[in-house]
Amino acid sequence: MAQKNSKRISIVPFVIVISFFSLIIFSQSIQAQTEQEVFDSVQALIRQAEAADIPPAPVMKLQAVDNPNDKGGAIIVSWDLSVDDAEVKAYQIVRSESKDAGFELIGEAVRGNNTFVDNKVEDGKSYFYRVLSMKTTLEADNTVRAVSSLQATVEPVVSSAQWFYMTRASCLFFVLLISCAIIFYINKAKSGADIYVRKIAGIDAVDEAVGRATEMGRKIFFIPGIQDMNDVQTIAGIAILGRVGQLAAQYETWLEVPVSKSLVMVTARETLKEAYTQVGRPDAFNQNQVHYLTDDQFGYAAAIDGMVVREKPATIFYMGAFFAESLILAETGNAAGAIQIAGTAMPSQLPFFVASCDYTLLGEELFAASAYLSKEPRQLGSLKGQDFGKIIFMAAIIIGVIIETFTNYNVSQYFKVK
Amino acid sequence: MELLGIWVAALLTLGIFSFLYKDNPVYKICESIFIGVSAGYWAIANFFDALHKKFWIGVFPTDGSDPDYFLWFGALLGVLMLMRLSSKIGWIARWPLAFIVGATAGLYMMLYFVSNAMNQVSSTMRDVIVVNSDTQLIIWGETVGSILIVIGVVSGLVYFFFSKEHKGIFGRTARVGIWFLMITFGAHFGYTVMSRMSLLIGRIDFLFRDWLHLLK
């Protein structure tokens, strides 16, 4: 027992000493760590304070040029970003008519942007530009302080208008080429040459559709779309209306044209009047055949739906530009049992017409229909000239794809037009 | 007042929906209100947008800017258009009409030519064999997609070629073109039906939430 007690006494001082030294070392390390942290934070504050006073590096390669291919009144200012772009809050653009004084702020470009278009300049006047790389810092008293460095243009810049939009030169070339082809084929058609136009099923069905209405003793409705006369599809639709009007006059069938635009009403009346006159039935024309409903898209659709359900026309033509009302109209006509012929160049509406009409003129068939119906030399020659344009573009695509695929030459750039 | 508006809107919506059953007097009333109100709205909107904002303010500016004298030409065309109200000089109305149609055709020619011809051709001219730049392996999905685009555009153009009968190889290519068109229409159909469903859901949401307060 005694031996055991003496052993226990001898261990205690060691434990105490070791604990003491451990405590000292531990406390010293904590102190050192705290001192290091304080030192680091002070250093950081010093760096921050120094950084707050240092403006970001200026932009490089600043240049200002007249905006090309425009009607004047614009100068493009561009630059290479500051190397401190990440710190920049905004690039401020200032302008003066004098090189050294009188600069005024005209705009800002946010970080990462290296272009600014000055649209508030007068043609013929000289302007100098400066771009400031600016950053802001929050002061201890919560005020914002901005520091910036600047880069200035040396030469004055003058804006001017250009007569030609030169980036569209390739467009001009192809328009001239196709125009020459059209003129050539028109002259050829006028000289009596036979111009072939392939069969268009939807147009061939026009006679049959008008004949059906005559046999049934019911009306024909012609819907020229909801766009105004500034849409080529409406113009094409009105051209087809002329042919339908001739047939309706010959067969003495009532043709009704509800419209949604006043100008379309005027044009449709003129067209129908002429069509009735051409077939020797001017007396049969009644201007109430063409009547206005409303400009509103769905108001127009609701009105036609009501007319179709109540009057049950035998034939309905939809020729022109249509939007969301296309299916509402065509489905109602289909439910009413009318033979329906549609034609539009609106890609998003063609599916509905294809689904619910008996015949549909797809896209360009609508524009070709007029030539197909009239067989008039000018229109036939024009159609042939457009086909020439399609050959040119088909050839360009095939050759272009081969070149792009098997060489490094970027040929598509010559067709890209802004 | 807002409550009254919601009730009127809800009853008119139901009145228009009643057409789904069959044509009926309620639908006729709603239809007539719709057409009358919209025609009146557009008449007023056109008056203020065209005559007041565009012409009157343009010719007699109140902000000190220079008057735009070209607007008088537009006003003259408008007056000529009204000549059709006279049986004797009604033919004059054809002049402004001819101007509108001609000027529009000219203005839109470049717009359509750029978007439908030049840029379409430019976008189709592509490297049809798409290779991963890192691994140098062919990306088959994009390659097949590019080839289909080229075939679709060329065969579609062949379909819209009117000067030659669709026979033989030409006819078969046109046939491919119409297949491409029909597949595109199918995709469009599905997409648009979805958007129409969202319109219907919007109306039903209005009826159940704003009118009946059955939805929170």
Q: Can you characterise this structure?
A:
The complex is a heterodimer of chains A (418) and B (216). Helix content of chain A is 48%, strand content 21%. With 418 residues, chain A is α/β, with parallel strands linked by helices. Among the domains of chain A are: 60-158, Immunoglobulins (Immunoglobulin-like), CATH 2.60.40; 195-375, Rossmann fold. Chain A has a six-stranded parallel β-sheet, with helices on both faces. In chain A, strands 3, 4, 6, 7 and 8 form a five-stranded antiparallel β-sheet that branches. In chain A, helix 3 (201-216) crosses helix 4 (232-251), helix 4 (232-251) packs parallel to helix 5 (262-278) and helix 9 runs antiparallel to helix 10 (377-406). The N and C termini of chain A lie far apart (105 Å). Chain B has 216 residues and is mostly helical. Chain B has a domain at 129-216. Helices cover 73% and strands 0% of the residues of chain B. Chain B is built from six helices and no strands. Chain B has helices at 2-17, 25-59, 71-81, 94-124, 140-159, 168-211. In chain B, 13% of the residues are buried. The mean pLDDT of chain B is 91.
- Measured between the Cα atoms of the first and last residue of chain A, the distance is 105 Å
The shape of chain B is extended
From the helix content, strand content and strand pairing of chain B, which structural class follows? mainly alpha
> How many β-strand runs of chain B?
0
**What is the CATH first-level class name of one domain in chain A?**
Alpha Beta
Contiguous helical run count of chain B: 6
Averaged pLDDT of chain A: 87
Q: Which structural class should the secondary elements of chain A be placed in?
A: alpha/beta
Say what oligomer this is.
heterodimer
Sheet with the most strands, sense and barrel status of chain B: none
Q: Can you name the CATH architecture of one domain in chain A?
A: 3-Layer(aba) Sandwich
Rg for CA atoms of chain A:
40 Å
Euclidean distance between termini CA atoms of chain B: 22 Å
Strand content of chain A: 15-25%
Unreliable segments of chain A (pLDDT under 50, ≥5 consecutive)? Answer: 1-9
Low-confidence stretches of chain B: none
